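Why run this: before we spend reagent on co-expression, it is cheaper to look at a predicted model of the complex and decide which construct boundaries make sense. The entries below are exactly what would go into the expression plan.
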Amino acid sequence: MAATGATVKRSIYREALTDSLKKLDPRRQVRNPVMFVVEVGSVLTSVLFVQALLGHGEASPRFVGLVALWLWFTVLFANFAEALAEGRGKAQADSLRRARKDTMAKLLKEPKRDAEHTVVPASKLRQGDVVLVEAGEFIPSDGEVLVGVASVDESAVTGESAPVIRESGGDRSAVTGGTRVLSDWLVIRISANSGETFLDRMIALVEGAKRKKTPNEIALDILLAGFTIIFLLVVATLLPYSIFSVNAMGQGSPVTVTVLVALLVCLIPTTIGGLLSAIGIAGMDRLVRRNVLAMSGRAIEAAGDVDVLLLDKTGTITLGNRQAVAFLPAAGVTEADLASAAQLSSLADETPEGRSIVVLAKEKHGLRGREVQSLHAGFVPFTAQTRMSGVDLPGRQVRKGAADAVRAWLGNDLPDQVKQTVQDIARGGGTPLVVAEGDVAGRRALGVVHLKDIVKGGIRERFGQLRRIGIKTVMITGDNPLTAAAIAAEAGVDDFLAEATPETKLKLIREYQSGGRLVAMTGDGTNDAPALAQADVAVAMNSGTQAAKEAANMIDLDSSPTKLIDIVEIGKQLLITRGALTTFSIANDVAKYFAIIPAAFATVYPQLGVLNVMHLATPQSAILSAVIFNALIIPALIPLALRGVGYRPVAASTLLRDNLLLYGVGGVIAPFLGIKLLDLLLVLLHLT
Amino acid sequence: MVSKAVRFSLVFLVLCGLFYPLATAGLARLIFPRQAEGSLVRAGDGTVIGSDLIGQSFTSPEYFHGRISAVNYNASASGASNLAPSDPALLDRVKADVARWRADNPGQPVPADLLTTSGSGLDPHISPEAADAQIPRVAQATGIDAARLRALVASHTEGRTFGVFGEPRVNVLELNLALRQLLGR
Amino acid sequence: MVLQVTLTLLIALALVVPTGRYLYRVFAGDPALGDRVFLPVERLVYRLIGLKDPGESMGWKDYAAALVLSNAAMALLVYLIFRLQGLFPWNPQRVGGMEPILALNTTVSFLTNTNLQHYGGETTLSYFSQMAGITFLMFTSAASGFAAAIAFLRGITGRPLGNFWADMTRFILRVMLPTSLVMALLLIWQGSPQTLSPFVQATTLEGARQSIAVGPVASLESIKHIGTNGGGFFAANAAHPYENPTPLTNLILILAMLWLPTSLVYTFGLFARNARQGWTFFAAASLLFLVLLGNTLVAESRGNPALHQQGLAGASMEGKEVRFGPAQSALFATVTTAATTGSVNAAHDSLTPMGGFTAMVLMMLNSVFGGKGVGLMNLVTMAMIAVFLVGLMVGRTPEFLRKKLETQEIVLLAIVILLHPLIILAPSAVALVTAAGKASISHAGFHGLSQVIYEYTSAGANNGSEFGGLAGNTPFWNITTGMVMFFGRYFSIIALLAVAGFLAAKKPVPEGPGTLRTDTSLFAGVLVGVIILVGALTFFPVLALGPIAEHLTLVGR
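The model came back. Tokens follow.
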């Protein structure tokens, strides 16, 4: 989905350039107090430049003009950063918008395929309307499948090219407007009015048009505005101080307004002020690139703060389903016989467990698949009553199922040795499946198939990392506590919730929250909705139900259960980037003071030249170098702001130490070098 | 709350503003009567000459001189010169004082404390060096042997408290009282 | 020189833990030493002021309102005492009523724990005013700041804010009165007068008449330092031999100034249930203190090059007392501005430029231990700003002592850190360009600028020391400094009480390896860095035009 190709990129840059000019509009600029002050300063120095050109200037036109020019650049660079971040979102929005063609829809009178229909434009559809979509047609709006099963191409929304199945009932009933039915047909009840569909919201989101500032961003904005006022005060009062000093000493001239404006712009936190919104937009953008849509900026900040992750066992911690790992025969039965019987009973069993038995039988005993028809076999499917499945052959019945179900079928108790095996497997977190057969001679147990959850590779290490950064992982499973405990231990999660129901999940979240923790979870079913609504970071699978999506504050288009961990990292990365650039910006001030103060007062107190530790050539070159450095640092940091500071899952103390060293200490040192270098360059170019 | 505020203020005005200082004064009179009244030095007839702790002006050459004072040792209006280190007025004053010192005490080192004003204008002390530097002048004016004067100064030199805190010093009034005794006045 | 300074500081350090622990016990409501004596007295006081339940905690608004209202009542009482002192007893010198603007400035000055003295103590105040006005406010102003700090500590550590009346009562009765009494007796032993007799008329050895001012000095002197107040009984303040007769009293005064501000940092650690937390802040403040102290010690003992040229060798003794010398004077000047007492044992106007620089910087920072209670509040404010700025770098939204710092707190903290430079830089600018302001300056150029900056910095930091060359007793200076003292005191206290109230109401966030720890040496370093970047660099331009220019001029001669 991300815009690729050099032409697209070039167009983003071109658009960002024009946008940064448009953003000079003071009505837009005033939303960012720091940069607004710079813009006012640019206007002021420009006026002074004109005045200087007319021969009444307070300094040489070239000096005033250069300062004014670089102040304008400072504003433009900041605008460019924001426009660039927005532009990347816009490119994505455009590709989404292409999906939102105004299609025609077949409006049904009643929810049946063959009901009478009228053709209306999709934009006229209201919530509750029922439409028919057939192969090759676009789904006109968000809705829920009422009748039918169809394969749908959702690549426009998810970027995933493989078609997905959508059918009525269950957790795969939600469809998204702008996706296309590939085969078959669907009768859909529309769930969103035009303009409020998922696609519409998504476009608005990635475009950043209605981006609201996040809570921490607002707070930081206020603090930066506070700093700006402090420096405004410092600079404004410097003029009377300077006039007093000049009068008292009877030498030199008061500091010029141009120099004061230059000092002000250098001192106020322009670096972070110029990049702050770009950082926010880029953070959203990083989520979008991982196919996650955050419904609010608050959610992504909360993701950084999350300290409990509720993870569904299946799919996140373990591979989809249980697999057969061993055949454990009863006394007097060979393993091969057991394997053969188990395979027979599973031939027609399409469940993953059943298939894994067939696979294991083939791997371990070379048993080939047999045609069920050729065996004249009758398949006995699993029912809630019998809780067994199996096969009826002429004169022989094979059954497999839970121990107590099989015991009931056998009519007598299981042999002790089989019972022992069943217990051992259960205690180890596995699922025992007893296989039995019956013929004229009677019914007997053949042995046990050991089914086991397979923990995903590398997941244990991942949880270890999370633990080191203070995040607790909790496995959610419907398994009994014994099984759950065994898997939890194997996977290395901190805690588990066994025999989970929507109610116990909700209760667990509330418990953690009352302890001050922030909880993140994923969900897809309608019954997950209450828990999703309660969680601080709630990620709904895009494949999930509408209710789940409504309750969540993020939607994972890939429907990948492990995405939660990525989301937390993106949240942290956003906050770190914000903090790093803030620290850098404020640390920069030290060098700027040392560049500008001796220069500003050189005429009245030449002895202050001692403070010119960088040995800058002239007062004018010193001030210009500081201003230019201050402007150039913004574009220099745009890539970092957009890409984000690298995040490693290490303890907070290590992270703070490393980042402080880089952005704090580096922030003090870098401008000393940069300003000196620019000063040398200015001298070389005879610009002073 | 207003009534609490007023009542609170009145209670503590009486307690902290009246009871406490008056009780302290009562205790002081009981335990340290001399200090409580200002460590006064009296002549034989009971008239007050001054205070141990308050410097007074000495200008005649036969006395050891105290430091110059910004308030001319007016003990009811203490104060400093408040001259900045860079103040030309300070330089002018020091220049003039150094010239006078050199005229009055030829060949003697210039004692830094003597030619600067104190913080209170009432500093009762001078440094032992400042006292020593005045010995030739005092010896000449009084006719007392310099060696006896040196011994007198030494016996009136107070060291650092516990050997650590503060600076060695000579109380000018006490030194001059002892000097008068030597002179038999 | 180094030895006596080191010893003094070591004694001060030794007092920190026992005092900090006692303060915690008293204000956390734990049983404490002296309960048997003090509880009945406290109950009596509560009955007198009509307080029914001293255990009933107040919301931050009530706590702040009680503080402001009680201070207003005291201000009114004391203003009337100053104006009408001619009518009251204990006025042997027959001093008349203070003129209105000076009385207002003096009332605000002592009410706000500043103790800027635009009056001459021995010439303008009766003994009654010195006791019922000055000494009384020295107790209550210090206690008000301390109470606010205790409520603040309770709030930020997640406790209810407490009861203002009970906090005031307990602090005055248990801490201030007994220690002041003992210290006053020590001072009297060393020579401080404590009498209601009129001024002594002496005839000097040379026959001149000398009128020697005496009075109830010791009782004022002790609370002046214990309460980090600073206004002297005499104009010369603690340089006066009656206020500070010996090096031993000088030691006692220094210890008294450092005593509660340093101990309170340890108490903070106990409130945070983490002694390390207290020590971390202690270390940060100590580092700044020691560096600045070193600067003054070196500058004062090197002396004034201009005087060296005239033949006055060695340390600069202008404005210093012989018994204290450069070491005890430099230490005193550093401590009095660090703890924002404002008492002086040497004329600060005559300090070397770098000595004056230290004094100004400490007041500009206003958090290197700082005044009674308020200093710690400022230090914690800086810590919160530090957490907010760099805390993001651990990948979580900022939290301090397990509470999230969010918009409402940041707004208030931003106001607090904005206010201090505002009330210093803005009036200074006005004073330096208006005739009324400039008329009081006694020195042209850099030092004149320093005098103005020092005056407002001292007023804004509620310190009270002055560059005495500035003629402060004019309507312009009395009114402007009065306003600066007022804003510097109440706005930040109220804002920070609000912060405490907000934080107390928040749910604590559990700590883990992902939490930014504020009790590490790394954070102490961050805190120092932020104090310098946010607190000090703001004043760099003005310091360059004042003391730094003066220093470079003197050195470059």
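The two ends of chain A are 50 Å apart (CA to CA). The CA atoms of residues 503 and 531 of chain A lie 8 Å apart. Bring this page to Monday's planning discussion.
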